[in-house]
Amino acid sequence: MKKTVHVVGAIIENENGEILCALRGPAMTLPNYWEFPGGKIEEGETKEEALKREIHEELGCAIEVFHQVEDTTYEYEKIIVRLETFMSKIISGIPTLSEHVEIRWISREKLLSLNWAPADIPAVERVLTRCMKEFTSN
Prior knowledge:
Blueprint: E1 3-12, E2 18-23, E3 34-35, E4 38-40, H1 47-59, E5 62-75, E6 79-92, E7 102-107, H2 121-129, H3 132-136
Parallel strand pairs: 1-6
Antiparallel strand pairs: 1-4, 2-3, 2-7, 5-6
């Protein structure tokens, strides 16, 4: 039986309407795929708390978390991943590499030019079909 992992991802938009994308390194699981940064939810954490912690650990930034964008379950060869993505914005800090081999700000129109991890693709498609204001307005 495959292990199921519950993770969260941040769709971080900057003031220019670009989305922060992160490239997984060759030593990571699912190497050389682009993804939205984030990670596993630890016991006792809310999804939002986990996302804030993961972005701080991975990128050295503090974020504000907005509305959920997508909730996807994807079965990989050795693991099942449930990925919940949320619109977010950086409120302090500048993203710096620690786990990924590259991070890049990409315009929405160019998101599909990247080789995305399969679990992230539904969120990419949702971002492309809906106005960002729908995700960030209260």
